[in-house]
Amino acid sequence: MTGRHRTNSSALVLCAALSSACQLVSLPEQDTDGAMSDTDGTTAEPGPTSGQVPTAGEAPTTGPVDPSGGTPGECDFPGAVQPIFTASCSCHAGGQPAGGLSLATGESFAALVNVESSQAPGVLRVTPGDPASSFLVEKILPAPSVGQQMPIGGMLSEGQVATISAWIAAGAPETGVFTCSAGGQEGEVGEIEIEVDGPVQVLVGETTPLTALVTNEEGEPVDVALTWTSSAELTLYVDGKGVLLGVSPGTVELTASAGGVTSAPVTVEVVDHDPPAATFTQVRALTDQRCAVSGCHVDGVEPGDLRFDREPDRLWEELVEDGAEQVDMPRVQANAPTNSYLMHKLVLRKPAVGAQMPIGGSPIAAAEAQVILRWILSGAEFN
């Protein structure tokens, strides 16, 4: 355990008991313009990622509660399992949850425990006491036998999978406690300090990473997952690894939180800048990987009447020349990222319509958003 926040758990968490587990529910996504999903749990890393900020250290990752390593402690479903669903399974929420499975607070337990899977007749989504026979477990592991690994566009950490497995192994209690690895209880985080050495500036179109020091109530460093929050996401975008991207000039407050504790805000100034241009070819490489996939903005599944599997010239026309169907805004307005619905869907946690894209997965990496931002800033040309 180190004094810097790191999220990739080093503990091996799932043994042979999980190797034959079954699945959750495959979810063809349906949302508004700008959706991005991935079928193999990977995230593209294209484009340049330079930036200017007086800080040092390795970029942290983030996500929902991520118990892993350390001395076993006590967890419960509302405090340790539900936050994983809430942060990572947004497609299974709202008025029309994917596959008819709601993982929303107050609904997930009844939808999972002792409920037969709609994809695997005769198999329960969660079999209390038996993670290896629970349909949920295989679905959150790589290469499930039916459909895609969940969440689409990302994957749960080892610690998160271990927490879900431990809950099931303990009998899947609704309110009772179960033994879990350290890191899952809110009380273990005492203070979070974003590590900066002075005033923070980020140039429009550039990226820079931040780190945070997390300590427990005794002042000892702990390794937990952080949630980074920008007070104005169309000015400064921060991804799940704490990497900042300047979107438009302005001043914002940045915080990091975990376990019910939030850091003191850090003021970040985004300074006007003319970054290097990105091309539509680079953007298309991103959309081919993240958007033109089964169940997401392809032929037959066209939320917002937007298809990313079209020929390049037709896709460019849909993005640049056609307005968004869900809101009165262009999908992409050349030189105006803050008035481009595509950017709204990618960087706003709560866009005007629907959910942040990619639905069901981690928010887009700052390096990916940077490519799209630079293309828009340079005129959104067909090149």
UniProtKB/TrEMBL annotation:
The entry's keywords: Signal
Superkingdom, natural source: Bacteria
SUPFAM superfamilies, A to Z: Invasin/intimin cell-adhesion fragments (SSF49373)
Family matches, as InterPro entries: Invasin/intimin_cell_adhesion (IPR008964)
Region listing for Disordered, in residue ranges: 30-77
The keyword RNA-binding appears for this protein: no
Keyword Signal assigned: yes
Signal peptide: 1-21
PROSITE patterns in the cross-refs: PROKAR_LIPOPROTEIN (PS51257)
UniProt protein name: Ig-like domain (Group 2)
Organism: Nannocystis radixulma
Upper taxonomic lineage: Bacteria, Pseudomonadati, Myxococcota, Polyangia, Nannocystales
